[in-house]
Structures are given as structure tokens and as C-alpha cells.
Amino acid sequence: MPAVSHARPAFELGLDLCAFLFLPILVLASRGAAPLAAVAGVCALGLAAPQGGVAWRRARGLALLWGAVSALWAVEPRRSLLVAARLAGLFAIGLSLTAAADEIAAPRRLLGCLAAGLVVALALAVVQLATNGSLTAPFFVHQFIEPALNQSEDGFGFVLLPLCAALLALRRRLAAAALAAVTATVVFLLVGDAARIAFVLGAGFALLFYRWRGRLARLAAIASVALILAAPLVFPPLAGIGAARHEAQAVKFSVWHRLEIWSFVGRHIAEKPLFGWGLDSSRAIPGGAALTPEGRAWLPLHPHNAPLQVWLELGVPGALLFALFAARLWLALGRVDWPPLYAAAASGSLVTALVVALGSYGIWQEWLIASEFLTFFLILVMARIAAEPSR
């Protein structure tokens, strides 16, 4: 395929551009992450496909298949099938990006593009916060609110530690320190509490993982499985615990609303625990649009908790598959042949993503899945850079 071979540099430049645009797009229009991932997926497919598929990882679409089957009993069957089709496309993008990670000829150039994009995104976030969204106000009907930057705050947390670890491997200590300091400052300037908590927990876990990698990987796998499978027994009862209720109300009203949502979701999980209500049925659960005593919907579109959403929509099979997926991620991270510092940084990124999943967003949101696939691709490419000195 000589024509495709000649196009490989163009495909790689396309991926470089996507790496640069990733974080600025999260700042200006987070939903743009999905189209950006689609472009990156096309470039990745062009880069990896000519190699005969040797870089393709094994993929098991059991969760996706179960989601599509759940349309048979879903509250909104057409919606379930539509979301299943969208997820199939997103997972195809993810597989293409994973396959292309080993085919990047100039990983340092891609690293530079990501670092430059982070600097631009940090500047854009500060301007947006200081000017009440003046950069995007002419293009949106809705008024800018500070939580609109939460998605970019999460994106900073996803990529910062692996990026700094790769820079340290290249002996760019000053650049790594400066990026870490500025990014941490911006993260704490923004208003996303969940993002800040996830960022701190991710950094703290990375320090521990650097010292006890194998043991912590196994413990994290076990803890993830236990938390996912026990989610209906862990999160919904919190609203009924007086100390938790008073603390949530004192900290922030949105925290108390989360507890109300989880209690509502827990009751409806108990109604259909085996098979669930169907893929993406959270938005149509009976009674979800009714108002709490404070005047908020009991279930606004999704539970803001990934394990609970999987339980609510896909029941026991979905929860088991989700738990297996999380466990395999941790076990793979424990044995992958990466330098200790970089593996620790990747573990911090994974903790950040998992903590965000416990308190924010819907698990099937396209921008979120696209961001996670792009982050995974970038982590795989930067791992090659981190391993260069040891080689």
C-alpha cells in the first residue's frame, strides 16, 4: 500500500495537531473532544492499519453488546440502541488510537505538542475565568458559568503527571516543575471541587505507587472490584446518615444533592437489580423528574456516579463487566514494563479518572469517553519516551 505509506507522515502530523488541540478544546468547548477524537481516530487508523494490524489489542465488546441487548427492556429502547451505536464508534476510535501508539515515529514531537497545548489551555482557562467567559460568549446562547471549566480541570489532572514524568525522563526538570506548579495553581483557582480532590488523591497515590507498585496495583484492583460491586450498598445510604447529611449540607448544596440523587438511584436499583433499566435509561427513570424538597430533580439525566449508573442501567452483568475492566487496568499497570516513575505517574492519572467517575458526569458522555481515549493514547506514546533512557 505505497500510497498509504507515503501518507503516514501526514497522519502522524494530524495526531500531533490533535494532541495540541486536546486541552484547549476542553477549555473552550468540551463537547468538541468527541469530534477531535474522531479525527484522531481516522489519523490513527491510517497510521496503524498498513502494519497488518500487529499493533491492535484484543478487544472484547461484551459490555457494549450487553448494553445493546438491554434495549429489549429499556425505558426508551431507541435511545438505548442509539447510545450503543455511538459507543461502538467511540470504542473503534479508542482501538485505533491504541494501535497507533506504537507506530508514532516522532514521539518527542507529540510530547512537545501536548505540552504546548497544556500551556495554551492554562492561559485560556485563566482568561475565561477572569473575563466571565468572554472568549466563547459570542458563540453560545447560554451564559457562561464557572463550572463550565470543570471538564478542562479534569483534563489537566488526567495528563499532568504522565507528561511531567516523560519530561523528567528527558531531563527537562525545569519544564516539568514549571508545568506542574502552574497547572496545580490553575486547578485550585477553578471551582471544580471533585476535580481538585481527584487531582490531590491522584498525586498522593502516585507517590505511594512509586514505592509499592506491585502490591498497590493488586490492592487497587481488589478495592475497585469491591467498590463497584458494593456500590448500591455504599452510596445510597449516605443520605440517611445524619453526620454525612449535615456535613454535605454545610460544605456545598450540590454535595447534598448528590446524596439525594444516590438515594433515589439506590431505590430504583433495588427494583431491577438483575438486568437494570436499560442502557442510558437514567434520564427516563419514573419519578426522576420529580422535585426534591429543595426544588431539584431527583435524577437529573444521570446519577453522577459511574458504578451506580452501571448498576441502574445494566444490572449485575454490567457491574461485573465494569469491575473486571477496572481490575484488568490495575493489574496491567502493575506488570507493564515501564520505568517506576512513569508507571507511578500513570497510576495517578488512573486514580484521578476513577475519582472523577465517582462524583461527576454521566458515564456514557461522548466528550468524557473521547477524553479518556485520547489520554490513554498520549500515555502510551509518552511511555516510550520515558523508557528511552533505560534502553
Q: Which structural class is indicated by helix and strand composition?
A: mainly alpha
Strand content: under 5%
Biggest pleated sheet: none
What order do the SSEs take from the amino end to the carboxyl end, as H and E?
A: HHHHHHHHHHHHHHH
Instruction: Give start-end ranges of low-pLDDT stretches.
Output: 52-59
Q: Quickly count the domains.
A: 1
Distance between the termini: 32 Å
Number of helices: 15
- Tell me the Rg in angstroms: 21 Å
Give the % helix.
over 70%
Give the overall average pLDDT.
89
Approximate shape:
globular
Q: How many beta-strand elements?
A: 0
Describe this structure in words.
The chain has 391 residues and is mainly alpha-helical. It has one domain (2-54, 63-230, 304-387). It is built from 15 helices and no strands. It has helices at 2-28, 33-48, 62-69, 77-100, 107-130, 150-169, 173-189, 193-211, 213-229, 231-234, 242-251, 253-271, 306-335, 340-359, 366-387. Helix 1 (2-28) packs across helix 6 (150-169) and helix 5 (107-130) packs antiparallel against helix 6 (150-169). It is globular and about 55 Å long.
